[in-house]
Design brief:
CATH class: Mainly Alpha
Shape: globular
CATH superfamily: Phosphatidic acid phosphatase type 2/haloperoxidase
Strand order of the largest sheet: 1-2
Order of helices and strands: EEEEHHHHHHHHHHHH
Distance between the termini: 28 Å
Structural class: mainly alpha
Radius of gyration: 18 Å
Number of strands: 4
Helix content: 40-55%
C-alpha cells in the first residue's frame, strides 16, 4: 500500500480490496467461474432494447464537438486521486466489481459468501454487455484514446482496444444495471448506490475511454435492461436470495477500509 498526497491507494487491480487482509475466497476471480452466466433476457428482447437506442453522434456535429472539448478537459485529472479511483472502476465483472458499492452500502462484500448475489449480478452483466455490444455493432464511434493515439488511459489498453467502439459505454451500461439492482436490494440506500453507478460511468471519461454522450447512452440502456430483466419470472426469486446474503454480509459489522479514500477521490472537482 503506498501513500501519494495523503491518498492511500487501496484501489488495487480494479477493486477496493484490502492488501493486508487479502482477497476473500468468495471474491477471487476463479470463484466467478462457478457462477451461472445465462442472463435473464432472450436474444430477441436484447436486440429490441438495442434497436431502441439512437445512433452515435455524427462526426463533426455539435454534440460530437462538445464531447471532444469536454473529454480533453478530463486530462487535468491524470494521476489524481480521481484517476486512481477510475483505475479501480475499470474492473466491471462480478464478483470483484461489486465491491465498488461497499461504501455506499455500508458493508464489506466478501465478509460473507454471496453466491446468489454473484449469480444475480453475473446474469445482469451478461444481459447488459450483450445489449451494449449490439448497439456498438450498428454504428462505430472511435474512443478518445482511439481518436488521439497519444491519449493516456488509466488502464492498460491494447491497440485493438484503442480501435474498438466507444458508443454506447458498455461500462456505464453495466454499472447502471448494478446500481439499479443494489437499489432494489436496499431501497434505503438507493440514492447512494445509484450515485456510485453514475461515478463509475464518469470514470470512463476520466480514463479517456468514452465521451460524455457515450456514458449518457450507456445509462439509458442500462436502465432499460434492468427494467426488462426485473420483469422476468426468475428475477424476484434471485433478488430475494441475494438480499439474504447481503444482510448476512452486513451482520458481520465489517466495512471496506478504503471508504475514506473513496470519499476523498469523489470530492475531486470534475472539469
Amino acid at each position: 500500500m503506498r501513500t501519494r498526497g495523503g491518498f492511500i491507494t487501496v484501489f488495487a487491480a480494479g477493486a477496493l480490496l484490502s492488501a493486508c487482509a487479502g482477497t476473500p475466497a468468495a471474491l477471487r476471480p476463479e470463484a466467478a467461474k462457478a457462477v451461472e452466466t445465462k442472463g435473464y433476457l432472450t436474444p430477441s428482447l436484447i436486440r429490441t432494447l438495442a434497436d431502441a437506442m439512437p445512433p452515435p453522434p455524427v462526426a463533426g456535429s455539435p454534440v460530437d464537438l462538445a464531447d471532444k472539448t469536454r473529454s480533453n478537459q478530463f486530462r487535468t485529472l491524470e494521476d489524481s486521486d480521481r484517476w486512481l479511483l477510475a483505475t479501480a472502476h475499470a474492473e466491471l465483472r462480478p464478483p470483484l466489481a461489486l465491491q465498488h458499492f461497499d461504501c455506499a452500502l455500508g458493508v464489506r462484500l466478501g465478509s460473507a459468501t454471496t453466491p446468489n448475489l454473484n449469480r444475480l449480478m453475473q446474469r445482469l452483466f451478461d444481459d447488459s454487455d450483450a445489449a451494449a455490444e449490439l448497439v456498438k455493432a450498428r454504428g462505430f464511434r472511435a474512443r478518445p484514446v482511439g481518436d488521439d493515439p497519444a491519449r493516456r488511459s488509466c488502464q492498460r489498453v491494447s491497440e485493438a482496444g484503442r480501435k474498438s467502439a466507444s458508443y454506447p459505454s458498455g461500462s456505464s451500461t453495466v454499472a447502471t444495471v448494478y446500481g439499479e439492482a443494489f437499489a432494489a436490494l436496499e431501497p434505503g440506500r438507493a440514492v447512494e448506490v445509484r450515485r456510485i453507478a453514475h461515478e463509475m460511468g464518469l470514470s470512463r471519461l476520466v480514463c479517456g475511454m468514452h465521451y460524455p454522450s457515450d456514458v449518457a447512452a450507456g445509462e439509458v440502456l442500462g436502465k432499460a435492461v434492468f427494467d426488462a430483466a426485473a420483469a422476468t419470472p426468475d428475477f424476484d426469486a434471485d433478488l430475494a436470495a441475494a438480499r439474504i446474503e447481503l444482510a448476512a454480509a452486513r451482520s458481520t459489522g465489517l466495512t471496506n477500509p478504503g471508504c475514506a479514500s473513496e470519499r476523498l477521490a469523489l470530492a475531486t472537482p470534475l472539469p
